[in-house]
Design brief:
This protein is mainly alpha-helical. It has eight helices and no strands. The N and C termini lie far apart (44 Å).
Length: 200
């Protein structure tokens, strides 16, 4: 039964792909024609934070609610720290060495990727991934512990991104005449502010 169901889903997906018009419809020309309004050179950044900013905002809010849902599965005292014994690592071992050497370089590279993302490939998603990898390296080496979810700074950092995004979106109602619109001449600074807020 499972194999037959999987075959039917595969067939349905194949038929959907084969039914696409040729050439496939695209909004790429519209993005290229309007990207100058956003004051950023990277079309992906323009799409995510200008042309379909409402989708990006909702995605950020969904992630916050998903995290709250996970946290609600157990009392606060069971979160933070490792579920077992702290990983015992050799303080002079190769893992600890890399956990001290790579994070400073990774942070610099992540900041560059973030800043360059306004006009070139990169952005907050890629830089946040690099920062998370550096943090995981430090955790695996046993040099730090996971943060306690009762810490107000952690909770503030998680909530600030969507709140700043909403605030700038509402500001657009008064300054640009539409929700999540940017006033002329202020699009790029506001996009960068939103990206910084969403980075955690």
């Amino acid at each position: 039964l499972a194999a037959g169901l999987a075959a039917c889903v595969t067939l349905a997906l194949a038929l959907c792909v084969l039914a696409f018009p040729v050439p496939a419809p695209t909004l790429a020309p519209a993005v290229v024609a309007s990207i100058a309004v956003t004051e950023v050179g990277n079309p992906i950044t323009a799409v995510l934070l200008a042309f379909r900013a409402i989708d990006t905002l909702l995605e950020a809010i969904v992630l916050v609610f998903a995290l709250l849902g996970i946290w609600s599965l157990a009392p606060d005292r069971f979160w933070g720290g490792r579920p077992g014994l702290r990983y015992a690592s050799d303080p002079d071992g190769i893992l600890a060495y890399f956990a001290r050497l790579l994070p400073p370089l990774g942070i610099i590279f992540a900041v560059y990727i973030f800043w360059a993302g306004a006009d070139h490939p990169g952005g907050k998603f890629q830089s946040a991934t690099i920062l998370a990898a550096m943090w995981m390296l430090v955790l695996m080496a046993g040099l730090a512990d996971t943060p306690n979810i009762r810490h107000r700074g952690l909770r503030f950092g998680i909530a600030i991104g969507p709140l700043v995004f909403i605030a700038i979106g509402v500001l657009g109602l008064f300054s640009a005449g539409a929700l999540l619109a940017y006033p002329e001449g202020w699009a790029k600074p506001m996009i960068v502010i939103v990206e910084v807020a969403l980075l955690p």
